[in-house]
Amino acid sequence: MSNLVVIGFPTTDEAEQVRSELVGMQQEHLIALEDAVVLEHGEDGHVHLRQAINMAAAGAASGTFWGMLVGLIFLNPLAGLVVGAGAGAASGALSDIGINDQFLRDLSETLPKGSAALALLVRDGTPDRIVDRLRSHAPNARIVKTSLSHANEDKLRELLKSAA
């Protein structure tokens, strides 16, 4: 079962740094992430979601391949490529994996203007080692929302407090 953890930061840059460090830790098998999205509530009041994976681009790449393959069968690979890329990009843009985008938009509107948050969908991890590696960011981090049990949320708060 996955857990949702949203951690607030004063700047978008710091949230992006933490996300890239977590991706590195995932390659070391210290954490298993299903999704990692940076939420930004800009000074202008607009909300921006910075997804880890661009679904439209991934869909376009997949659609291009399948469209060209079908186009070869019908002796018109160029038309198949164009139609496949368009259909793939459209289906990719409409798909939503991981954390619900509307939930993230609603949540980012509650952030102070100019600040950011990192929303993580964590399948598995070793919290003490992760917090040790992210110690330099701990003084600025605050838990915004979590689906952890009360006991585990308290442990996470204590780890963040001791790292600060």
Tell me the Rg in angstroms: 19 Å
Mean pLDDT: 78
> Span from first to last CA?
29 Å
List the secondary-structure elements in sequence, H or E.
EHEEHHHEHEH
Question: Total strand count, please?
Answer: 5
What are the low-pLDDT stretches, counting only 5+ consecutive residues below 50?
none
The fraction of residues assigned to DSSP E strands is: 15-25%
| Main β sheet profile | 5 strands, antiparallel
Structural class: alpha+beta
Molecular structure report:
- The chain has 164 residues and is an alpha+beta fold.
- Helices cover 51% and strands 23% of the residues.
- It has six helices and five strands; from the N terminus they run E-H-E-E-H-H-H-E-H-E-H.
- Strands 3-2-4-1-5 form a five-stranded antiparallel β-sheet, sandwiched between helices.
- It is elongated and about 65 Å long.
- 25% of the residues are buried.
- The model has no long low-confidence stretch (mean pLDDT 78).
Name some characteristics of this structure:
164 residues, alpha+beta, 6 helices, 5 strands, 23% strand, elongated
Short summary:
With 164 residues, the chain is α+β, with helices and mostly antiparallel strands. It is built from six helices and five strands; from the N terminus they run E-H-E-E-H-H-H-E-H-E-H.
